[in-house]
């Protein structure tokens, strides 16, 4: 899933037996025999995990509160649809990206196999892309509302098309994470 920059520097060279003497100083090498040290669950990593889980809990609560508030109104607004989509994308980040990163910091290694890794990377990328793309849709909607206020009746259809494109693009741009597994 994730390889240290030290290992990446050696593996991506033209010669796999090449020396790692040119590696950055932050790599985990012992001074005596130049063998790699295993990563450890340091105090900084523990703090990072605790903070990540606290933020994950707060974010989940707040996003669910926004979804609940947005669903309570009878009148459907095109802006409310945008807010619900952004909140859904934020929940994906909260429930996929944050816990995966926290667990990665706890375990320090990947034990679930290549397919599970690729699937989680697909979900992580889709969550991040969807959040960014829905934000762009909201920006385009607000720009249109300011520049063309008399075309407000076209906003729901235009936003629905843009949201479908945003979610589709987020899925399509995430596919290479899974596709490489089935090709090799």
TrEMBL record:
InterPro entries: GPCR_Rhodpsn, GPCR_Rhodpsn_7TM. It is found in: Cell membrane. It is a multi-pass membrane protein. It comes from the Eukaryota. The chain crosses the membrane at residues 49-70, 82-100, 120-140, 161-183. Pfam families: 7tm_1. Keywords: Cell membrane, Membrane, Receptor, Transmembrane, Transmembrane helix. The keyword Transmembrane helix applies. Residues 62-184 form the G-protein coupled receptors family 1 profile domain. Its main location: membrane. SUPFAM superfamilies: Family A G protein-coupled receptor-like. This is G-protein coupled receptors family 1 profile domain-containing protein.
């Amino acid at each position: 899933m994730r390889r240290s920059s030290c290992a990446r520097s050696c593996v991506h060279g033209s010669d796999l037996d090449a020396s790692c003497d040119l590696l950055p100083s932050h790599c985990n090498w012992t001074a005596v025999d130049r063998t790699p040290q295993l990563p450890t669950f340091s105090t900084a990593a523990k703090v990072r995990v605790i903070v990540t889980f606290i933020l994950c809990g707060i974010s989940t609560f707040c996003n669910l509160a926004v979804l609940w508030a947005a669903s309570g109104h009878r009148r459907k607004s095109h802006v409310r649809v945008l807010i619900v989509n952004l909140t859904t994308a934020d929940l994906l980040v909260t429930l996929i990206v944050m816990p995966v990163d926290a667990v990665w910091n706890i375990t320090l290694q990947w034990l679930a196999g290549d397919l599970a890794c690729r699937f989680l990377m697909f979900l992580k990328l889709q969550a991040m892309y969807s959040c960014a793309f829905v934000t762009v849709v909201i920006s385009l909607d607000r720009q249109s509302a300011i520049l063309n206020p008399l075309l407000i009746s076209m906003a729901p259809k235009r936003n629905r098309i843009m949201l479908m494109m945003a979610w589709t693009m987020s899925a399509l741009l995430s596919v290479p994470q899974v596709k490489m597994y089935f090709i090799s």
